[in-house]
Sequence to fold (224 residues):
Amino acid sequence: MEDASLPSYDPKGDANETKIKIICLGDSAVGKSKLVERFLMDGYQPQQLSTYALTLFKHKTQVGDQEVHVDFWDTAGQERFKSMHPSYYHQAHACILVFDVTRKVTYKNLPSWFTELRHYRPEIPCLCAANKIDVDYSITKKSFNFAKKHKMPFYFVSASDGTNVVKCFRDAIKAALAYKSNSTDFMDEIMKELDNMTLDGDSISSSGFDATEQEEDKESAAKS
Ligand SMILES: Nc1nc2c(ncn2[C@@H]2O[C@H](COP(=O)(O)OP(=O)(O)OP(=O)(O)O)[C@@H](O)[C@H]2O)c(=O)[nH]1
Ligand SMILES: [Mg+2]
Fold:
């Protein structure tokens, strides 16, 4: 699918200058736009692609000796229809899958977003962000098995106070670059690093929404 009105991210141009595309996925109002805005703060120029109800946040950065032009793609509400236009996925190099820790349904919908992502982009790195932890920091003691199950790097983040946002987005940029250059071990490196990292020095354990789900299952089994 080629469309001249959309930017192209095929490898071209200066060897030290790379263009990458990162997409955010997740239910409406989980904080996708706020996370991109928080990461970029003042350093972005939003560009509206009204035909597609999209905003591209353009960001220039340095990774090692490489100059990287990152386009963060953001939707304008298309996710309410639980499905994105294929152009959203086209040529994407990495994805940040976002849910809202204050709304369990947004976690429960991750598998359907992930399935759609893998339909269009079977191989790109995908990172998982649990947003709005500022509402109740105790949520960071809980584990969320979806990310573990799919071997995705997982981040507790807050677009409101900035916790972990830079870390998550920098990792996404590095993962996108590694994907573009056919390097396969970068995701393993992130996973190892995150295994050794905790938000506040405590180990993240006990139950998350998954366990709540299991408890609910047990309860309904006991009733029937
Ligand atoms: N407390 C808290 N609120 C947040 C955070 N991130 C986003 N919000 C709020 O959540 C609401 C939705 O944020 P958006 O960034 O617009 O969410 P979105 O996923 O882009 O939503 P749509 O584009 O409308 O689908 C807004 O009212 C934000 O202020 C956060 O980290 N903490
Ligand atoms: Mg938005």
